Amino acid sequence: MLRLTPIVKNLIILNVIVFFFLNLIMMGILPISPRVVNFFVLHHNNYLGLWPMPAGANAFHPIQLVTSFFSHLDLFHILFNMLALASLGTSMEMVMGPRRFLRMYLFAGVFAGLMITFFDPMYGGVVLGASTAISGVLAAYAVQFPSTPLSFFFLPPISARKLVIGVAVISAVLVGVQMLGRDMGGLGRISHFGHLTGIVGGVLYFWLEKRLPFLRN
Q1: Which fold has domain 6-216?
Q2: Is the pLDDT confidence value at 148 over 70?
């Protein structure tokens, strides 16, 4: 049985608390005044989700750069992300140590958030979910364990480096398809640019760490 490391465990707990708290509020289950419930229903995306510019210029708030990767759309969304965080993040925290791992996780999420906010070429909707930061964890895993086999859904295990390169290429292709305006069905609801920049953020953290000694403390 997988034993979670402290930071990974607390990140999962925080994500789960936010998810269920918001859903309980919007379902009217918690003993909170209707006025507060209506506020959350109308405005929770403005403060918890990330709105790319220029479409979301009036809805963007800097706090979204962090809150967006602690918020999730539905049960499957948070379940998939937390399973990925548990399986990849535990190994990375053991290697990097808690403080260093947390810095990398937050850096990847915030970096991807900044890229989405100002440079996302197509995605027009609100961005929610930890997958940007987890993409950074996946990239960090490939940096530390490039030859370690990883499996992805139904695919046979391949080395972590090849998996990350494959995910990055697929994400870039899907961003291109979005730019062409093609109907992507359910895939159109996913921020592929966020996944791609999360991977870049994970690799960039190690590059910066070599040049900024305080990041290694």
Answers
A1: Rhomboid-like fold (1.20.1540)
A2: yes
